Amino acid sequence: MPGTTIQAISIYKLLVPLREPFVISLGPLLAVQNVVVVIRTRDGHTGYGECSPFLTINGESVDTCFLVGQYFAPALRGRDALDLSGALAELDRIIYGNSSIKSAFDVALHDIAAQHAGLPMYEFLGGHNRKTLHTDMTVSLGPAEKMQADAVRFQQEGFPAIKVKLGDTLENDVARIRAIRAGIGPAHPLRIDANQGWKTADTAVAVLQALAEFNIEHCEEPILRQHFMDLSRVSAASPIPIMADESCGDEHDAARLIRLQACRMLNIKLGKSSGFHRARKIAQLGQAAGLTLQVGGFLESRLGMTAAAHLALTNDAIRHCDFDTPLMFSEDPVLGGIRYRPGGVVEVPTVPGLGATIDEAFLRRAEQVHF
Length: 371
Known about the structure:
By secondary structure, the chain is of the alpha/beta class.
């Protein structure tokens, strides 16, 4: 359709300090370093997408995403924005991998398509808004006393589940969870995420068995993702259900983990899967296999987390949401988008498209390039 021809593409660096360092087993994070993609069509539609690259997980940085985006923009300019499969195939043709920056383009293109269809994103993707989304809140890795204090504060603030970053020695991690349970009590839903920190299957099993008494809902990525062949052994020996995260990037990874019976749960992230197109395939595979699914993210603003929230409404097997990182920002540049309500409730926009944009005044201050 001539009116939906892509007329202009802009790429911006989104840099925002965090309120305090966010520490995981892979290292500390001090600031948001994201990329925003804005795609405009001839008929006046504008699509927004955001990615939050992660050097140690998807092998991308704000600089590589900003540069690779400049390979994509000239190739997409002049194409029909509604030819989603053709446009996304072109990104894969241009360069292998680079799932983070691909996800920003994928989301922006889907934003335009959903606006053109007059549907909110979740409905355009075949979903519904009949379930209420709740986010957990994450306790950063650190001294047991600080982690306990943070967990107590999050409980008092009404978050229905608390996620705890681990991945240290058995003794230190058990001490952390013991302190947190002493602070929040034995019943409040508690989840853990090692971010590959226990490395080997034997170490992971030992820690997980030592944590059995603390009533933990699930554990994300206990061992190095390169050791995915050992994950089924960890799952079989663990008293805590295992959720694959870093080892589940796209639908091919999901199919492999399912075939290996490696885990009972999958964590889907748009930045790992290259966007909605592949994320939905992961969800379909997981649902068919009877797995429980979570949708999470990296350090996206409310723009990227709005996309994640729409995804969470597309599949009934998605039962957990990890949408807390925008609450860690020192500044919120997003207009519209998801809203955080009491009790960890996440309210999703019902307007056509994504329903979120970035404040133009903020973008004017950013490093940028235009096509």
